Amino acid sequence: MIRFTLDGREVQAREDETIWEVAKREGTLIPHLCHKDAPGYRSDGNCRACMVEIEGERVLAPSCIRKPADGMVVNSQSTRAETSRRLVMELLLADQPEREMAHDRSSHLWDMADAQGVVTSRFPTLEVERIPLLDDSHVAMRVNLDACIQCNLCVRACREVQVNDVIGMGGRGHDAFPVFDFDDPMGDSTCVACGECVQACPTGALMPAILDAEERGDSRDFDREVQSVCPFCGVGCQVSLKIKGDRVTHVDGINGPANEGRLCVKGRFGFDYIHHPHRLTVPLIRRSDAPPKGLDVDPANPWTHFREANWQEALDLAANGLARLDATHGGQSVAGFGSAKCTNEEAYLFQKLIRQRFGHNNVDHCTRLCHASSVAALMENVGSAAVTATFNEIENADVAIVIGANPVENHPVAATFFKQFAKRGGKLIVMDPRGQALKRHATHMLQFRPGADVAMLNAIMATIVEEGLYDQQYIDAWTENWEAEKAHLAQFAPEKMAEHCGIPAETLRQVARDFATARAGMIFWGMGVSQHIHGTDNSRCLISLALMCGHVGRPGTGLHPLRGQNNVQGASDAGLIPMFLPDYQTVTDDAVRARFSEIWGSGDFSAQRGLTVTEILDAVHEGTIRGMYILGENPAMSDPDVTHAREALAKLDHLVVQDIFLTETANYADVILPAAAFYEKAGTVTNTNRQVQIARAAVRPPGQALPDWQITVELARRLGLDWQYTDPSEVYTEMARGMRSLDNITWDRLVNDGAVTYPSLSPSDPGQAIVFGDGFPRAEGRARFTPAAIIPPDEVPDSEFPMVMTTGRQLEHWHTGSMTRRSRVLDAVEPEANCSLHPATLRRLGVEAGGMVRLITRRGEITIMARADRAVAEDMVFVPFAYVEAAANVLTNPALDPYGKIPEFKFAAVRVEPAGVMAAE
Ligand SMILES: Nc1nc2c(c(=O)[nH]1)N[C@H]1C(S)=C(S)[C@@H](COP(=O)(O)OP(=O)(O)OC[C@H]3O[C@@H](n4cnc5c(=O)[nH]c(N)nc54)[C@H](O)[C@@H]3O)O[C@H]1N2
Ligand SMILES: Nc1nc2c(c(=O)[nH]1)N[C@H]1C(S)=C(S)[C@@H](COP(=O)(O)OP(=O)(O)OC[C@H]3O[C@@H](n4cnc5c(=O)[nH]c(N)nc54)[C@H](O)[C@@H]3O)O[C@H]1N2
Ligand SMILES: [Mo]
């Protein structure tokens, strides 16, 4: 601790604290502009707005970078300091547009001017010819350099916080201004529109376009602010929603445990789907004169097949249809798909409804298409399916593997931490068949053959065994089955596997050494690992790799499957899975079922594991399942071999769909129930880091739409269940009774603290970021090695289908596009269905970049615009699945992994042909 005098008082400072920070802690806000009081921002001391006087020093000191020393006497309120600071403000204001004409009349700059009583400037204004031009080339943000004070915060935001490296300073001295790439207009640059610069800018020189109407705006022109959690991905960024009337006007990132103030383009600019005119506002019932169910009827206007109904009629019809099927064909004839886009409480109620009312476990959700195989491997070998460490732990790692995940596009805020890690000198090892965006930051980029994960990972582990780099002490203390694993790996020498996976043996060895000899290493993985018929084997390898190096349970170590949906961790935890009740307690265990029957005050239900997503749709084809309740899922777009899935939906006697839009799936419904969107309801969600966070209702749902939990309760009551919930907190409290993971995490605590990580060991413990340092929740506390053998993809290319199709995501779009294609900014940035091929492949096909191609697999064909992308291998095509007009899942292979029951979304044999060109004579 350092002791010094600040404004006549004796104060203390930590080694790393600046005078500015100490002053703030002591209740004095020293004016500041280039200094941003937010995590991740380095102070720069360039603007001189925060000068203070230090006794014995000739010149004033910038308090934002100056650290106090023992015995120092600092005066922040001396006349000299105050005069100097006001002078700085006046000089800056001279070059600004007048306040009435300001791009942001409530900017931080004006707040600081007000705080010092500076209203106008005595100095001459900037010569007209030197006022920089405005740049409105970007749909989401405006660049108003006439308001720029050269504080450099946008550069730090872009380069140091988000590590996007787009903004730099161009020009010199007084005419130095931010530039994008090589002086491009912002809209033409490589900017990914995370908006960090907009959030950082203190003057309105960078602003959300919507706030800068007619080049004049006011960022404080809102009525209310509500804090909630972003509804898109599993990172779980905390947001501050600014609301005017009944609309969200704009969004800022706040200091949540995962995001530390950061957001991506979807979180910052993609919120407006909730205000889209397509929102469902009244219950709908299929018209008796509607044509047979099918997407081919009139995709442009599915509304015509439905009529409006009141809630009473729609709920009665929905419930009676399901009850009738139960009465005539038994409970097994009704199945449910719940949602990972809704809250924990909603997921819990959904699985409870199916189990309690229909007596079986045929309830599942999109986790089946996602990390089901990772979950299978983690349950088997670690005894728990959640991450062993938060992604933020990468801060303490010195090596990290990112395999089969593209976080720059799919977990963009997590990716900022990964990029910072690499920038600090951490060794980043990226393994992906596609040259994805993290490649630029990677120490090793292993661009291997798709589907060859087991060969590659076994070769790396074989090296670790052969070169004796494993952690014998850790293995002895905390694992089992090592000898079998070790023996198994002997067949996988890198020299033998090199050809198999397409990576030179020496590279595999180097990667093995880097990972094994590191002090602390982490492994992150995604859909490239899980979505294969050998997805469980892929994950087994990753688990084994971490275990043999002892990279679990310590700071900077861990296994982290990056969870996808905003609440897929929570929905799975809440029991929205056919094999598990809440907290992964198996349905086959009589004692477990008895415990839930007791909590629910009801009888027993089936001891048989239920059917999974794709199995349920197969059972519809077979005629054993005849009715479904689908809440917040869009299987008519997201399932593999979607033609087969759509036929199943069309075949159902009774389909109830609850969504916020009339989706492709809702198009097959008999009854459509209009739900409140995420920002319109309260509840809890659990992110990829095991952080349980509170979401608050910010605006009213449109029309008659209701929160999902309320609709499910209404349905349950009409189905004869005595459910009395009147608030999500009651559901949460019941849920916590059956879930040890929620011990010490009460609803009230979440309301107060915003977030708690599970497990939380006491009512005041913020939760354990790292788990399993002292053993695993399985046999004798030991984790297990499960050897994996090489299994080829289900459908290998042949002469008829010679290329490999892989599917996935893009930054701006969310899965089936229902939300993001209805967001103004997101749709404007990525408006058209597209696939990516290597330029050489396009040349071979005779197709120009931007031209159309036809993709044909054994399931069907689509026509789609082709982009040239060197990141894609020459024998591959990458297709995102967000576009109904060219739906990737018409093509995908439904073959399943035997353990996780996950389909092989990442590999299908495909033929690519030019489209739009007539065949030669
Ligand atoms: N913008 C956006 N973000 C999202 C989503 C979204 O729809 N849009 N969805 C969310 C959800 S639910 C999820 S699950 C996550 C998914 O996030 P990711 O796991 O990042 O998803 P993908 O883009 O499907 O695939 C990841 C990577 O796998 C690679 N890959 C393909 N084949 C193989 C292979 O055989 N082996 C290996 N090792 N890699 C391979 C691909 O090249 C790709 O870079 O994203 C979440 N975030
Ligand atoms: N080809 C291919 N297919 C894939 C994948 C792939 O990589 N390739 N990935 C798979 C993966 S990982 C996943 S997770 C799945 C995702 O598959 P889905 O979960 O089916 O996809 P989403 O588009 O996220 O569907 C969510 C639905 O919820 C609705 N919704 C949003 N908010 C709310 C709300 O508050 N209440 C209600 N009631 N509804 C709401 C949306 O409008 C949308 O219809 O796709 C899988 N399919
Ligand atoms: Mo997912």
Automatic annotation (TrEMBL):
Keywords: 4Fe-4S, Iron, Iron-sulfur, Metal-binding, Oxidoreductase, Repeat. SMART domains: Molybdop_Fe4S4. Its EC number is 1.17.1.9. PROSITE patterns: 2FE2S_FER_2, 4FE4S_FER_1, 4FE4S_FER_2, 4FE4S_MOW_BIS_MGD, MOLYBDOPTERIN_PROK_1, MOLYBDOPTERIN_PROK_2. Pfam families: Fer2_4, Fer4_7, Molybdop_Fe4S4, Molybdopterin, Molydop_binding. The keyword Transcription does not apply. GO terms for molecular function: formate dehydrogenase (NAD+) activity. It is an enzyme of class 1 (oxidoreductase). Residues 139-169, 178-211 form the 4Fe-4S ferredoxin-type domain. InterPro entries: 2Fe-2S_ferredoxin-like_sf (IPR036010), 2Fe-2S_ferredoxin-type (IPR001041), 4Fe4S_Fe-S-bd (IPR017896), 4Fe4S_Fe_S_CS (IPR017900), Asp_de-COase-like_dom_sf (IPR009010), CT_Formate-Dh_H (IPR041925), Formate_Dh-H_N (IPR041924), Formate_DH_asu (IPR006478). Residues 1-80 form the 2Fe-2S ferredoxin-type domain. The keyword Metal-binding applies. Residues 223-278 form the 4Fe-4S Mo/W bis-MGD-type domain. In the C-terminal section; belongs to the prokaryotic molybdopterin-containing oxidoreductase family. This is Formate dehydrogenase subunit alpha. It comes from Plastorhodobacter daqingensis.
